[in-house]
Amino acid sequence: MGRQSFAKYSGCGNDFIFFDGIGTSVAHQIDAAFIQAVCHRDKGIGADGVVVVEKASPPADAAMRIFNSDGSEAAMCGNALRCVLPFLCAQLRWPRRPYHIKTAHYTHKVQFSPDGVTATMSPPYKLSWDITLNIPSHGPLLVHYLDTGVPHAVFFTEQLYGDNFFKLARAIRHHAEFIPLGVNVTAVQCAAGNNLLVRTFERGVEAETQACGTGATAAALAACRLGYSHSPVTVIPFSNKPLTISFIASGNSYRNVVISGEAQLLVEGFL
Predict the structure, then answer these.
(1) How many domains does the chain have?
(2) Would you tell me which of 30, 41, 184, 216 could form a disulfide with 243, CB atoms 3.0–4.6 Å apart?
């Protein structure tokens, strides 16, 4: 693809390689093999995914395309979305103010906040509570399904850091209940002070990530639904860098869902 600038950003430990698709025609040059190569943590730059920031039509100021590290394209990523704002302001030299960013199905407002970057999330949909899954070698497991931009199966546990997390997460991710595309898996442990500890196994990365914005959102909404917490919820991912999720709950619906947390530049350079 020739000499191409990039920037690597982290949203609370969830890391992404950003490319400018506004000033350059880079998008058509990015394919699955390229994404897998640059995201490889031993042989490439290393990241959970690739983000291309592109032009958009009003009312959006820009659009975000997000690709998982396996090369598949995702509809949404909460932490990548938050990283778009500092990328626009630092790398593309846009004025430092709020912007509206279009993803596959929604236009989000992103703005700087005291704890980093805040973004509005789409209202969750396809909510399905109290699904019992039969997991071989584990037995029945109660999960809750929420699409917070991408689908998540959320389950609550008192042993978040147990040895069987990966085996259990992979079984849920590929469970027949969620065919054909599978599901992201978020495990949640309630902690003191309206805090939640979470771990997320991401579809498309096929591994646990240090943080997941849509997973943190799904965890917070599910915890509210079950009476374990209330808005605003502090969600502490595997990276130990907290995300704050605020929302208005009304029965089985949620609105004004907002996610806030750290978003920082890690490195920039050229390929």
Answers:
(1) 2
(2) 216
Label residue 210 left, alpha or beta by phi (over 0 means left) and psi (-120 to 50 means alpha): alpha
Instruction: For residues 86 and 104, give the distance between their C-alpha atoms in angstroms, rounded to a whole number.
Output: 20
Residue 214 three-state SS: helix
Contacts of 236 (CB under 8 A, 6+ apart): 191, 195, 196, 197, 198, 242, 243
213-222: buried (b, 16+ CB within 10 Å) or exposed (e) per residue?
bbbbbbbbbb
| Residue span of the structural domain in which 203 resides | 125-260
Strands (E), 114-232: 116-120, 125-135, 139-147, 151-156, 184-191, 195-202, 207-209
Specify the 3-state DSSP secondary structure of 220. Answer: helix
Is residue 11 within 8 A of residue 262, CB to CB? The reply is: yes
Residue 163 pLDDT exceeds 80:
no
Residues annotated as catalytic (active site), given as ranges: 77, 212
Joined together, the tokens standing for residue 229 give: 């917490």
Would you state the pLDDT for residue 38? 96
Q: Which tokens go with 24? A: 């350059």
Q: Write out pLDDT tens, residues 67-115.
A: 999 999 999 999 999 999 999 999 999 999 999 999 999 999 999 999 9
